[in-house]
């Protein structure tokens, strides 16, 4: 390969990049099996240890799964936001950043997502958004359904923005900011207020009114901020920690 001066770890990273490039070049789909190890060893001109390091890295990134035994090998997967959430969490933990960091980020990001969703959301996503509102309304006495539908609502707005980065970022931030795990509770009065503002945002998005969607989402995130600052200030100041239960 002409890369003898590079450390093995660097070589493995370059091979991982080539594997991903080849997945794209071949047009591989989710579930496709990649070439067997012996073929990859010849194709990438590396040792077995380097190739396995490359494949293990891609597995950790969610790009492939490694199936053991005969007929196994690397299978193409769809990466998700779990790795992103882990990486961001670790970065913030080593900065000793508090959980309010995540709320502040949502304050900056989500109104723009709602604005874009009003311009770009497709009919299937709009139906998902409507379902989350209706299902929350029909189950206001169920705290678990409230949290689940709130998550679906914000995920769907992010995806509906038509900006893939927003979709992954919000999914990752919601993974990190699990209010129930932090000991936060949401009484019926709060759940009802959340339902009302979700409905307001949904109507603005469904009406294709970007400015109304942006303003409504600003109102919603500001309400979340006020509620958590009033009732859970200590939780917001708790340093972010990977895998911690708050």
From TrEMBL:
Highest rank taxon of the organism: Bacteria
Signal peptide coordinates: none
Domain HTH gntR-type: 9-79
InterPro entries xrefs: GntR_C, TF_FadR/GntR_C, Tscrpt_reg_HTH_GntR, WH-like_DNA-bd_sf, WH_DNA-bd_sf
PROSITE patterns xrefs: HTH_GNTR (PS50949)
UniProt KW Transcription regulation keyword: yes
Record key words, sorted: DNA-binding, Transcription, Transcription regulation
SMART domains referenced in this protein's UniProt entry, alphabetically: FCD (SM00895), HTH_GNTR (SM00345)
Record flagged with keyword Oxidoreductase: no
UniProt-listed Pfam families: FCD, GntR
Coiled-coil intervals: none
Stored PANTHER family: TRANSCRIPTIONAL REGULATOR, GNTR FAMILY, UXU OPERON TRANSCRIPTIONAL REGULATOR
Name of the protein described by the UniProt record: FCD domain-containing protein
Species, as recorded: Rhodococcus artemisiae
């Amino acid at each position: 390969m002409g890369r003898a001066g590079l450390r093995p770890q660097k070589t493995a990273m370059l091979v991982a990049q080539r594997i991903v490039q080849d997945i794209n070049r071949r047009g591989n789909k989710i579930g496709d099996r990649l070439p067997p190890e012996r073929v990859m060893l010849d194709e990438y001109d590396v040792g077995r240890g380097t190739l396995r390091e490359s494949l293990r890295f891609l597995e950790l990134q969610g790009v492939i799964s490694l199936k053991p035994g005969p007929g196994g090998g690397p299978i193409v997967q769809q990466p998700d936001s779990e790795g992103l959430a882990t990486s961001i969490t670790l970065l913030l933990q080593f900065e000793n950043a508090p959980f309010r960091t995540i709320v502040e980020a949502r304050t900056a990001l989500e109104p723009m997502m709602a604005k874009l969703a009003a311009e770009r959301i497709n009919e299937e996503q709009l139906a998902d958004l409507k379902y989350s509102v209706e299902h929350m309304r029909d189950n206001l006495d169920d705290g678990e359904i409230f949290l689940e539908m709130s998550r679906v609502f914000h995920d769907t707005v992010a995806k509906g923005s038509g900006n893939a980065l927003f979709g992954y970022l919000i999914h990752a931030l919601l993974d990190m900011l699990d209010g129930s795990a932090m000991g936060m509770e949401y009484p019926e009065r709060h759940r009802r207020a959340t339902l009302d503002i979700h409905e307001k945002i949904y109507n603005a998005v469904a009406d294709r009114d970007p400015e109304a969607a942006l303003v409504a989402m600003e109102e919603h995130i500001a309400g979340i901020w006020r509620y958590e600052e009033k009732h859970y200030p200590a939780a917001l100041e708790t340093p972010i920690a990977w895998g911690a239960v708050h």
